[in-house]
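Why this split exists: single-chain examples teach little about how molecules sit against one another. For that reason, every record in the complexes split bundles all components of an assembly together and asks for one structure covering all of them. Below is a record exactly as it appears in the raw files.
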Amino acid sequence: MNAPLSGPGSATQTPGREPARSGLPRTSRTARHHAPITATGLVAKVVLLGLVAGIAIWAAFPLVEAGHWLGLGVLAATTAGLFYLYLGRRHIPAKYLVPGTLFLLAFQVLPVLFTASTAFTNYGDGHRGSKDDAIVAIQTSSVKQVPGSTEYALTIATTGDPATGDLVFLLSDPKTREAFAGDAGGLRKLDAADVTVSNLSGKVTAADGYTVLTIGQASGRSDAVTALIVPTDGGAIRANGLTRAYEGKAARAYDAGCDCVTDDETGRTWTADEKVGSFVAADGERLTQGWKVNVGWKNFGAVLTDSNISGPFFGTLAWNFAFAIGSTGLTFLLGMAIALALHSPRMRGTNVYRVLLILPYAMPSFAMLLVWRDMFNTDFGLLNNLFGLDVDWFGGTWSARIAVLLVQLWLGYPYMFLVATGALQAIPAELTEATSVDGASPWQSFRAVTLPLLLVALSPLLIASFAFNFNNVNAILFTTEGGPFAPDNPRNGATDLLITYTYRLAFGAQGAEYGLAATVSIFIFAIVATLSAVSFRRTRKQEEVYS
Amino acid sequence: MTTIAQTPAARRARGRWFAQVGWRHLVGVLAVLFSLFPILFVISAALNPLGTLSSTELLPTGASLENFTNLFDRTAFGHWFLNSLLLAGVASFASIFLSALAAYAFSRMRFAGRRIGLLTLLLIQMFPQFLAIVAIFLIFTTITDLYPGIGFNTPWGLFLLYMGGALGANTWLMKGFFDTLPKELDESATMDGASHVQVFFRIMLPLVAPILAVTGLLAFIGSINEFIIANVFLTNTESKTLAVGMYGLVAGERNNNFGMFAAGTLLTAIPTVLVFQLLQRYIVSGLTSGAVKG
């Protein structure tokens, strides 16, 4: 029972355990060797392997086209492995495990490993790409309109689809009436014969080979318009609104000699710091555009020691436990109480009760969470209306927490009611009758017989429910969104779980900090894994899980 | 369990009835009220001709199907509904099949790395998949470039991703179900010359079918409610699922669209509630029997 859990093969070789069972595979394997190949089995094998081959060929072409040789190698190796496995008669367990494992590796293990490696970097807003990317971004974003710089009338066009095609600036110089086309690749002069320029506005209204966007289409893509910078000899051309553009000069330039960026106007310099992945000035000011570097254990240290992060972290951890225990415990208590109340041979109509009671569990929970959010609304929410209250439910720390737990109770207790009913029916009536014959009160009989038996049957479900609620994103995101927030700390709210806190770190308005978010994910993983391991060992003492 | 004090002698009979049975009905009625009042509110909102949150009362004040017609006219609800049904249906079926295969191997065969495999599954399952969303996003950006058909804004990309979680979510539960079946069944079939494939499809699967249906239903409900990852994957209006689309409905226009949202909630609930009521007896027996074994 307590054999070490490590080492492949220990399951088969644990001495002295169930000799009868460990003899099974050998006999069955020899038997399987003699099992005849059926026609249906053969057809299924041919069809499925044909499907695998077809998918592999379909997947290979884009890989070849894009020159992803590593990907092509993995694809070829996987396909060959599948053929080897399913054409041979050996490795029977692998035949059942491989299909799910392939998906598991590609879409679960790979992202998890990638996330874990991100935890050691500063990856996030301002630190996304390489150093060269950062230099280009710094230079082009410093383009400024200087006095005397050329202004153009701007028309936004594309060579592709108006909604998705790459944008092109059609520019006309009001003084010379020359027309140009510019994109991220540079500026080209257009032949006057191919272009129609409006006399009234001086704008290009049509050009051969280009589709001109209407103002509506252009304003729908205004982010792309602002982002498009046309490099020129002396600087770059940028849009100023949707109808005008100017040619400006880059105020900041990178010098490889000193590995620094200098601002021409102010003369300030920022020197590259490879440790933090930023250009840093002498007084410590950083340019917002940096690059991705490895920071080692810095993020882990920050979670534990930086009071801005560790303060919320441990506070959130405590509430996270309270939420998971509260959700699981309250739903279990209420569900069990109702199951006990309805569990009586003299009760009629229990089926009607049951059908109505479990409705909350069958309703789509994402929608009901949003409905509850609106029922808690201060001004026109149902709860305040119904009871004549004027409570700002999500505004106060404790009212918000109570509200969240109440919603969880409503959503979760029908499930507990169902499983508790099932477990109660499985307890032999003789046991409780025997206690009453011995003179035990109903309460004593419940404490001594019914509850322990219920807990044995339901503890795995309770653990699963706890683990689910520990990371129950929807419960928070759809109701309080983590709030209420303290005025001085917009990062972390009173009802935040670790997971919603991490979500906000990674994608919140504060700017994405993927590196830090990945670190917090690892902490969450470690906490949940430890808890489950402990509870798992405890339940394992009761059941033979590994048999 | 009947600890309530007896009422005085005058109404003794009725008092005894209350002490033994009546209070149970009282508890049942209170519980039903608690269960039903938010649902009643949703029905009332869906029938409310004004369609706003502020004008909705607990009990319906009018009966109009305007919210339902608006839902289909003004939003892509039909698309969302079909997307969700397709995605959740295919994903839950396939994931149950994948984990049944793995559970069969874990339950009935002994091989090197079996115990490690089981423990690894347990561990991986504890890493919340959506925390890896940045990595998933980057992986699927590449996939979308190479194979647009299974990339963003298609149900298939999301389907592949859900399959990644199939083994972790259900294998343990399912292994528990398989363990409850007596080994003599498949041993005698093997003696009679059945191959391992025949044992799996002809003997094991039919025996656990009701439980598979329940697990499948729970997986189905799980996919219908999945929001975070779907929200990143599906940005085109017509490719959204119910959770993503309906969240968008009340994210901005919270008050005005509430009637449409409530109507959508009711329509979303129809398939799950129906199947749920059909399967509830298996849920009771299935979940507890599988759970006891691990």
